[in-house]
Every structure is written in structure tokens, then in C-alpha cells.
Amino acid sequence: MQASCYQLVLDRKLGEYTLPDGWTVIAAGNRETDRAVAHRMPSALANRFVHIDFTVDLDQWLKWAERSSIGREIVAFLRFRPSLLHDFDPERSGNAFPSPRSWGFASRLAAANPDPESLGELLAGTIGPGAAAEFIGFLKIWRQLPTVDDILTAPEALEIPTDPAVLFAICEMAGRAAAPCHAGSLLDFANRLPDEFSVLLVREAVRHCREIADSDDFAQWAARHADVLV
Q1: CA neighbor of 180 nearest in space, from 149, 212, 152
Q2: Is 221 helix (H, G, I), strand (E, B) or coil?
Q3: Minimal CA–CA distance to 80: which of 130, 142, 158?
Q4: Helix, strand, coil in percent for the chain, rounding step 5
Q5: In sequence order, which residues have a C-beta less than 8 Å from that of residue 193 and are 6 or more positions away?
Q6: Global pTM?
Q7: What is the pLDDT of residues 122-170, one digit of tens each?
Q8: pLDDT in the model for residue 93
Q9: Which residues, in sequence order, are CB contacts of 169 under 8 Å at separation 6+?
Q10: Any residues with CB less than 8 A from the CB of 87 and at least 6 apart, and which?
């Protein structure tokens, strides 16, 4: 069947049919090494294509996650454990593994709010038992976080945690709540965080509300962290 593509890919024709102007032929598939119903492409067809290998990129996935209403707890977890965004090994047994696709499924499962035992089993069957166990542990932390109101109303009073997982979760949660009226409180809180998390929080806040970058509070924060922003 692939031989029928030779003329279509090279000459943009199939018998008497000609592709309209402006159309492009694009093919996508898994690698042979993935063992995912992939068959070797005939050399004559392969030579008619430009071949590009794609890799999973966390920043690009996060942009998609924001547009697609992926759960905040999943976004925060994957910022903390980026290697689990896509963890596929064709040599590994088992049907479930973490991937950008399966994290989307996991987000919908978590949003349905099943009982904890059922959620653990469902996630293990979606992203694999290892990733599910880590994520369930992270959820326990997530549910004990201070509220956004706590951060915005008393940024100087909150105790700053030392656990990186907790800090990632707080930065994600607070950054999404960014608004011009909260700039002062948010940046006061950012100033109390370790530098890398301060930058993470402010970057996330500006991504959700660009007006914050125009505030005097932002200018003061940037001057204080100029050494890590260079």
C-alpha cells in the first residue's frame, strides 16, 4: 500500500488527481524501536520525505496544558518531576506508562474526584504504578498547601517550606492566581523564597498576567534578583 504514495508525495498527484496549491503532504508515525505497530518504510518512499525526529518538551506541553484545562496539581507535579512527562521504554513490561496523552487522561480522572483507593488504581492503570505512586504522594502534599488567599493577604506571615515538592506546588498555585491588584503581595511572597523558586513563581505569574511586569513591585523584585536573571 505504501507504494501508492510514491507519486503523491513526490509529484503531488495520484493518477488523474492533483493536490490543490498550498497543500502539503505530512506523515507521522512511531519509530521502529518503539515497537508500536511500526513497519520499515521502503527506501524509495523514505527518500521522498524530509525526516524530523520530535522529542517531548515540557514547556510546550505546559502551554498546551493551560489551554486544555489540565489540573493544576498535575502541572505542578510535572514541574517537580519533568522526567515523568514521558517515560516510555519498549523493553519494559506493562500496558500503562506516563506520556503527554496519558497525563491528560489522568487529569480527567483526578477531576472526577473518586475515592482515594479507586483513584490510585485508576492512575496506576493510566500512567503506570510507579508514576501513580509518586503522584498520589504529591497529592497529599498539595491538599495541605496554604490557600491562595493566605499567600495574598499575609505574604510575610506564612512559614516558607523547605520541601522542593511543596515549593513547586505553591509556585504553580500562586502563579496562576496572578492579577495586577495582587502584584505587591505576590512579589513580597516571591522575595521570601529561595532564588530559583522566586524566579519560577514570578515567571509563572507573568505568564498568566503580563501586566505584573509593568508594576513598580516587579521592577524592585527584578533589581533584587538581577544576578539570577542574567
Answers
A1: 212
A2: helix
A3: 142
A4: 60, 0, 35
A5: 160, 167, 171, 201
A6: 0.71
A7: 999 999 999 999 999 999 888 878 888 888 888 888 889 888 988 988 9
A8: 75
A9: 73, 76, 77, 80, 138, 141, 142, 145
A10: 97, 98, 99, 128, 131
Closest CA to 142 of 117, 165, 160: 165
Q: Which residues are CB-contacts of 84 (< 8 A; sequence separation ≥ 6)?
A: 77, 78, 98, 127, 131, 134
Local structure of residue 18 (DSSP, 8 states):
E
Nearest CA-CA partner of 160 in 135, 197, 185: 197
Tens of pLDDT, residue by residue over 186-224, are 999 999 999 999 999 999 999 889 999 999 989 999 998
Q: What is the reported pLDDT for 103?
A: 97
Buried b (16+ CB within 10 A) or exposed e, 35-52: eeeeeebeeebeebeeee
Residue 143: the pLDDT is 81
What are the tens digits of pLDDT across the range 86-105? 998 877 778 899 999 999 99
Q: Distance (Å, rounded) from C-alpha 124 to C-alpha 98?
A: 10
CA distance 83 to 64: 17
The whole-number average pLDDT for the span 64-69 is 92
Q: Which helix (H) or strand (E) holds 13?
A: strand 13-14
90: left (phi over 0), alpha (psi -120 to 50) or beta: alpha
CA torsion 37-42-46-47 (nearest 10°) is: 180
Q: What CA–CA distance (Å, rounded) separates 10 from 75?
A: 42
Other beta carbons within 10 angstroms of residue 175's beta carbon come to: 24
